[in-house]
Amino acid sequence: MTKSEFRYAHHPEDVKRYTTQELREHFLIPSIFVKDEINLTYTMYDRYIAGGAFPVSKALKLEPIDDLKAEHFLDRRELGVINVGGKGKITVDGEVYELGNKEALYVGKGVKEVIFEATAEQPYFYINSAPAHHAYPTKKITKKEAEIVELGDTKFSNKRVINKLLVNSVVDTCQLQMGMTELVEGNVWNTMPAHTHTRRMEVYFYFDLEEGQTISHFMGQPDETRHIFMKNHQAVISPEWSIHSGAGTSNYTFIWGMAGENMDYGDMDGVSPEDLK
């Protein structure tokens, strides 16, 4: 079963006046994994879709949601999947791909059937999708094949490892870009110093967070920031005008997914910590 909800885009002047509850209703995606469901959120920010497939007792077929007005989910879209659980398998038009923990799969435009299944272990398939204009081949990416960058400093509590999994230097995509950032133990800040990039939006998905711990995700314009407290296995939508940074009460891992007109990972407008308000 594939379920979905719809989110509109928002003007930054309006967001300044949002209450805590309104921020959470518009930007937080609280339930990514629902037993034996594919659960998706369609946002008008670059028509991005984020969600999860959680096959427990049965296989789950990716069905076209009403908002797509399409016969198949990927008629005009591409798909990225990163498994954040135990080993599972994804069948793409009859071809089976086994995905272990923190491995990724790119599925191109025009694919007719995508099926998610558990094996002897319990997978958690995190899903992102963006509109596509060209059909690129399906490809599995492991951490060994990823482009890996180490950033940060323990002195500033932001030492981290960035795994660029579904980026244009690793696999051909139309506009979808996905990767995974792992914080080194004892470090809590991600993406600090913060930045914006008006040429693309982003969705953050947080996981590997210990039970009872929390993450404060920071968003908003650099001189008008807001925060949303989040739990493990939750995601948050980041508009193109917003910073996207966070700090946890322990270390964690997060997946960033992006779409827009620019695929250059380094194309961003940096913001000094001392200029944040």
From TrEMBL:
Source organism superkingdom: Bacteria
A single GO BP: D-glucuronate catabolic process
Pfam families: KduI
Pathway: Glycan metabolism; pectin degradation; 2-dehydro-3-deoxy-D-gluconate from pectin: step 4/5
Cofactor or coenzyme needed: Zn(2+)
Protein residues bound to Zn(2+): 195, 197, 202, 244
Alphabetized Gene3D superfamilies for the sequence: Jelly Rolls (2.60.120.10), pectin degrading enzyme 5-keto 4- deoxyuronate isomerase, domain 1 (2.60.120.520)
EC assignment: 5.3.1.17
Annotated GO MF terms: 4-deoxy-L-threo-5-hexosulose-uronate ketol-isomerase activity; zinc ion binding
Catalysed conversion reaction: 5-dehydro-4-deoxy-D-glucuronate = 3-deoxy-D-glycero-2,5-hexodiulosonate
Entry's cofactor comment: Binds 1 zinc ion per subunit.
Entries under CDD domains matching the protein: cupin_KduI_C, cupin_KduI_N
InterPro entries, per database record: KduI (IPR007045), KduI/IolB_isomerase (IPR021120), KduI_N (IPR027449), RmlC-like_jellyroll (IPR014710), RmlC_Cupin_sf (IPR011051)
Keyword list, A-Z: Isomerase, Metal-binding, Zinc
Similarity field: Belongs to the KduI family.
Protein purpose: Catalyzes the isomerization of 5-dehydro-4-deoxy-D-glucuronate to 3-deoxy-D-glycero-2,5-hexodiulosonate.
The name this protein goes by in its record: 4-deoxy-L-threo-5-hexosulose-uronate ketol-isomerase
Source organism per UniProt: Leeuwenhoekiella nanhaiensis
Lineage: Bacteria, Pseudomonadati, Bacteroidota, Flavobacteriia, Flavobacteriales
Record gene name: kduI
